[in-house]
Amino acid sequence: MGRPSTFTQYKTLLAKDIRQEFRTREMLTSMGIYALLVIIVYGAALALTANGIDVMKMGGGLLWVLIVFTSLLGLGRSFAHEKEQGCMEGILLVPLDRSVVFLAKATANILFMLAVEVIAVPLFYFFFMSGEPVAPTFLAIVAPLVVGTVGMAGIGTMLSTITMNTRSRDVMLAVLFIPLIYPLLYACVTATTAAIAGTEFWMDFFVMPLVLACGYDVVMLLVCWVLYDFVVGA
Amino acid sequence: MRKTKGPGVNLARGEKHTNPTSDPDEMAIRALGITKAFGTRKAVDEVSFELPEGAFLSIFGPNGAGKTTLLRVLSTLARPSAGEAYICGVDLRENPDEARGLIGLISHQSMLYPDLTAEENLMLYARLYGVADPQARVSELLDAVGLSHRRLDQVRTFSRGMTQRISIARALVHDPKVVFLDEPYSGLDPHAVDIFDELIESVRGNRTFVMVSHDLAKGFAMCTHALVLARGRIVTYARKDDLDFADFSALYRDTVGMGVA
Amino acid sequence: MAQRKVNVPEAGQWPDKLAVPALAAGAALTTAGFLMAFLFAAPVNGAALDAPELVGGVMVSHQQLLSQKIFYFHMPVAIVSFIALAFGAYYGVRFLTTREQRFDTCSRVAMEIALLFVVFTMITGDLWTRFEWGVWWTWEPRLTTYLILMLIVIAYFVMRNAVDDPERRATYASVISVIALVDVPICFMITRLIPSSVHPVITREGGMAPDMAATVVVIMLGMMLVGYGLYRLRFREARLAERVQALKEQMED
Question: For strand B56-60 and strand B225-230, is the pairing parallel, antiparallel, or unpaired?
Answer without folding.
Answer: parallel
